[in-house]
Design a protein that fits this description.
By secondary structure, this protein is of the alpha/beta class. Helix content is about 45%, strand content about 15%.
């Protein structure tokens, strides 16, 4: 059924039907109700191309990730964000166009999808996109939302995890439940918001119990960097009894390195991570971690973006998504319960 058929059935003009279905004023509540009911019964779906021509909207959102750092196949973070984005956009008649941002590209507003007006807004995922690129984008008129990233001085729409709270709960558990006092934090790049916040959570828990902080930094957060940082940490502090990885990949790398050095997890070295990626439960031993709701972050980012497209001028919104402590073998919990 098309607009003309709905209009004929209700007894109004096609212009009236169009106003109702595009949430425009100038229609009585009674007529609006009849049109919506008729459209629902007919399972009406608007022609997005026609709507785009009429409203100067493409009904398409650009999803931007970094080109050279982590591909979709290497990192399970991005597909889950994308899935959440797609869930919300599909419900609202929008489509997704995926674009990779080159590290050399300092002016994302010049990307073809923007300069050619192929999208109505952007979702930029991950911490790899530089602040200078984001600021250049902020100077343009296109709406955008950051996921797992933000600016420290300039307010922008962003969706973040409660990284500090999550890390605090994990470190607090190691101290309060397992009596660990010598805990190292295996950290990533300082410029990443998520890394800084997780480090703050670690420091807050350690300070709360009057314990000395022990931090090792690396330029990336991979299994390989986790192995290297664990080796460095044990050389610097041979008496370590636990480590907290800034993410699960780092934590898994730490477990592997500890095993190669003859230290069993969790008997000789307790390990915890952050993210709860699929590999965490499958690892041997299974990894205790902090779960982040990645798909939900994508969903909320899409929701925020469409709100800004439909209501220009809204103030920037910072959304914080909660976390959940997941206790498995690597911290000693399941081993403890089996004794």
């Amino acid at each position: 059924m098309d607009l003309k058929q709905i209009a004929k059935q209700v007894g109004v003009s096609t212009a009236t039907v169009s106003r109702v279905l595009n949430d425009q004023p100038g229609v009585s509540a009674e007529v609006r109700k009849k049109v919506i009911k008729a459209a629902a019964e007919a399972n009406y779906r608007p022609n997005q191309l026609a709507r785009g021509l009429a409203t100067s909207k493409s009904q398409t959102i650009g999803f931007i990730v970094h080109k050279e750092k982590y591909s979709f196949s290497d990192d399970p973070f991005y597909p889950f964000i994308l899935s959440g984005v797609e869930d919300y956009l599909t419900q609202n008649g929008y489509h997704i166009l995926i674009t990779l941002l080159d590290e050399k590209e300092k002016q994302p507003q010049k990307l073809p999808i923007i300069s050619q007006r192929l999208v109505d807004g952007l979702i930029l995922a991950g911490p790899f996109i530089q602040a200078s690129s984001i600021m250049n984008l902020a100077s343009s008129e296109i709406p955008f939302v950051l996921v797992d990233n933000s600016l420290s001085q300039y307010p922008v729409n962003c969706v973040l995890t409660d990284d500090e709270g999550g890390a605090y709960s994990g470190v607090h558990h190691l101290i309060a439940e397992h009596q660990h006092k010598k805990i190292a934090f295996l950290s990533g790049p300082n410029e990443w918001v998520s890394n800084r916040e997780r480090l703050h959570g670690y420091e807050r828990a350690m300070e709360e119990f009057g314990l000395e902080g022990r931090v090792i930094h690396a330029d990336e957060t991979t299994i390989a960097s986790g192995e290297a940082m664990l080796q460095q940490a044990l050389k610097q502090w041979p008496d370590l009894t636990a480590v907290y990885g800034v993410n699960d990949s780092v934590a898994i790398g730490a477990i592997r390195a500890a095993g190669k050095l003859g230290r069993s997890t969790p008997r000789d070295l307790a390990v915890m991570g952050f993210d709860d990626i699929s590999w965490a439960a499958a690892n041997q031993p299974s990894l205790s971690t902090v779960k982040i709701f990645i798909q939900r972050m994508g969903y909320l980012a899409a929701q925020c973006l469409l709100n800004n497209i439909q209501q220009p001028g809204l103030p920037p919104t910072k959304t914080l998504v909660t976390t959940e402590l997941v206790l498995r073998e690597s911290c000693g919990c399941q081993e403890k319960s089996n004794q």
